[in-house]
Amino acid sequence: MGLTGLEIYKQLPKKNCGECGPPTCLAFAMNLASGKAALDACPYVSDAAREALESASAPPIALVKAGTGDYVVEMGDETELFRHDKKFYHETAYAIKVSDNLSEEEISEKVKAINSLIIERVGMHYKVQFVAIDNESGNADAFVKAVEVANSITDMPLVLMSKNASAIGKALSIAADKKPLVYAATEENYEEMTSLAKEKNVPLAVYAKGLDALADLVQKIVNLGHKQLVLDPGSRDLSQTIANFVQIRRQAIKKKFRPFGYPVMAFTRSAEPLQEVVEAVSLTGRYASLVVLNTADPAHMVPLMSWRQNLYTDPQVPIQVQEKVYAVGEVNENSPVYITTNFSLSFYTVQGEVEASKIPSYIIPINTDGTSVLTAYSAGKYEPEQIAAVLKKIGIEDQISHRKVVIPGLVAVISGKLEDASGWKVIVGPREASGIPSFAKSQFA
Questions:
Q1: Which of 41, 56, 220, 322 is the most exposed place for a label (fewest CB within 10 A)?
Q2: What are the phi and psi torsion angles at 327 (to 5°)?
């Protein structure tokens, strides 16, 4: 159980300097108790107090890192049960499993396919974070060879999946420099696995069937001096796994139960890829920090990664694009100019339809704080004077020879005032973006 705000306050210097952020030490103590502040923010806390408050200042779910350089994967460090309370910070990582029963050529081909799973959508980059090498054969030599092949092809960290400590030791001699996740420490092998993880300074997955057994095993490993842990409660039924994840999260955040204060991981079980993706969606929505899948098909992974991206955005801050001139195609001085908002979904929908029209064009998203056209207009954020000012400051006048601008048909009512405010000829476009290709061909072809 964590310390209360008043218990923490007694350990603080009581200077009320405000350098930590909150105006008083008491307010800072309350933030520490709720996991919304770090003790390092106080420049005057004593060493003795720091030691006493270590558990209270730590996040309810520890931050665990795998990978290195541009491929670092951060898991955990979460403070909320519900996304609408604040936000979730570290998105669920996805690992694609590669069996050591495959031939070297098959392993190579699958790892290359995993490497290529980098997708851009609405200005965001989606990717898989891990390659998981599974010791499905039970043969240590086959496992080590598979790790060697995969490690030579990918810069992503590996998940080393074997309960054979000797095989893990040999695999770590190959891949430790990329800081892989070792899976898994069990009641039978935890001392050897913990020793290997400590020696190589890599995160360790802890596997036990049931929450009581998991808590006991985590405590044993922590007592051995290793705290870079990822938890697997051992259930493989989807509903039971979700129930376990919810219980672990509640105990960690609400009760400050330290043995459960670590990221959690799960495996999809279905042999059918689309059903596997549905499982992964459910696990992503219920606190999984890592999900291990079998499919590497982009057609299966794109919807899953899109769901993940939506879940891990700030619910109070819509995804936005920068207010500037965007060129679609090989534009010239005669290219049409479209006006939209900086809400990413609106912008990229318009961009896709303009591309489909095959007529090179400019698009200018007006900063509406990430709201759609009608929402922005209703809130007074899409006014003629504002749009005219953007046309002036953004430099589009220097790039074209005409003074014509296309506005969404949903806000046709502003066309007259916009002409007066800007001096431009306003063309009312279609009400829906899907009408842009036919509209553009009729107007500009």
A1: 322
A2: -100, 130
Pick from 414, 313, 430: which is nearest to 366 by CA? 414
CA separation (Å) from 190 to 163, 164, 206, 220, 228? 9, 11, 8, 8, 14
Pick the CATH number of 326-444 from 3.90.950.10, 3.40.50.11600, 1.20.810.10, 2.160.10.10: 3.40.50.11600
Ranking 65-69, 173-177, 247-251, 303-307 by mean pLDDT, the lowest is 303-307
Is the pLDDT assigned to residue 316 strictly greater than 80? no
Question: What pLDDT was estimated at residue 1?
Answer: 43
Tell me the pLDDT tens digit for each residue of 261-296.
Answer: 999 999 999 999 999 999 999 999 999 999 999 999
Say which CATH architecture domain 63-311 belongs to. Answer: Alpha-Beta Barrel (3.20)
Calculate the alpha carbon distances from 144 to 101, 139, 240 in Å: 12, 9, 33
| Per-residue tokens: 429 | 């476009």
- End-to-end, the C-alpha distance of the chain in Å comes to 70
Class of domain 5-56: mainly alpha
Residues 231 and 258: beta-carbon distance below 8 Å: no
Q: Mean pLDDT, to the nearest integer, of 308-313? A: 81
C-alpha to C-alpha distance for 227 and 367, rounded to whole angstroms:
45
Tokens for 222, please give them.
Answer: 């922590």
Residue 57 has pLDDT above 70, yes or no: no
For the chain, how many helices (H) and strands (E)?
Answer: 17, 17
Residue 21 CB-half CA count within 13 A:
13
Q: Above 90 in pLDDT, residue 34?
A: no
CA distance 107 to 156: 15
Residue in 75, 111, 416 with CA at minimum distance from that of residue 266: 75
